[in-house]
Amino acid sequence: MHELDLAFVRKQFPAFDEPALRDQAFFENAGGSYPCRYAIWRLHRFYRERKVQPYGPYAASELAGAEMDEARRRLSRLMGVEEAEITFGPSTSANVYVLAQAVRQWLNPGQAIVVTNQDHEANSGPWRRLAAEGVEVREWRMNPTTGHLDPADLAALLDDRVRMVCFPHCSNVVGEINAVPEICAMIRRAGALSCVDGVSYAPHGLPDVGRLGADVYLFSTYKVYGPHQGVMVIRNGLADRLPAQGHHFNAGVASKRFNPAGPDHAQVAACAGIADYIDALYAHHVRAGRDARDRNGVVHEMMRRHETRLLQPLLDYLAGRNDLRLIGPRDAARRAPTVAVAHHRRGAALAADLARHGINAGGGDFYAGRALEALGLDPDHGVLRVSFVHYTSKEEVDRLIAALDAVL
């Protein structure tokens, strides 16, 4: 058990040394985290030294391709998957859209998919549109009071017509961490495939996708301290069955099959900075050799312990107020530190008031309008959302609570 050295962590993020940001407490990490210095440095170096077409026969081109390959190789090892199973795309929204087109071509008439009303629109809308193509779309609905997704409700939807189930690792407004390994195992026993949106979970510890059991796992690197890219893991057994969506001559290239846009060379290369950061945290706290997957697991646990310790007092404070509705679990161990509250004032107005106290938070529907409606809330009115990751300090959470007292 290693306790997170917060002083060391914050030194890895240049934002904390910026004068304009120094007095600001950042609580909108669910919209995008601060980038670590390793990703910034790699992006800067690529644009300065290697901004050429990669994989050519000259030195700068060879180095550019090697850096892109390094990012794929190191992220795959951290997550316990094969290099060929990783697709980089412009965003998770774009990756899901492309995947849905491939699945549409693969499905037969009369077959079904399952979506939830807990999801961000990225892992909901593209699948729901398949209904216009004759695909049956079934909805796994969350509890309208708690926001919980009950696996027993999913079991009632599964039959031999269901080919895929799409659900979040955790919702970006409910925050509850869903039991992904158990749910994926249930889906597999039913003869279907699983597509897990990990965008709201991955910032709190890069997941071991190999052990989760998901057939598809997606997340956004700009929320995991890196550049603006989407990562889609498609396990080999499924990738080979789906029709390619890129240029026909790239159909046999695993990294290009599901990215019709083509890779953003510099940003793909900069994703290796995420691996640099995880390795730096491990080396600073542990200093003993393990393989990449184990190192990532240790860092994941350190992040989660720190976040959980900071989150529980905030949840207790919010749950103790009778003028707002706290969405999702009140136990920090069951959720990510992405916390939405409903109030008689609009979420955007509350966020604007917090900004005057040096608290950077968000207000709105966060592309989770279906989830808010399912909870009986008006997406146009919106909610206030405060979110943080492991580089947040106790002092910043205390500042947030004091500012909430003043604003509410």
Automatic annotation (TrEMBL):
Annotated Aminotransferase class V domain residues: 26-400
Highest taxon above the source species: Bacteria
Keyword field contains Cell division: no
Keywords: Pyridoxal phosphate
A Pfam family reported for this protein in Swiss-Prot or TrEMBL: Aminotran_5
InterPro entries: Aminotrans_V_dom, PyrdxlP-dep_Trfase, PyrdxlP-dep_Trfase_major, PyrdxlP-dep_Trfase_small
The name this protein goes by in its record: Nitrogen fixation protein NifS
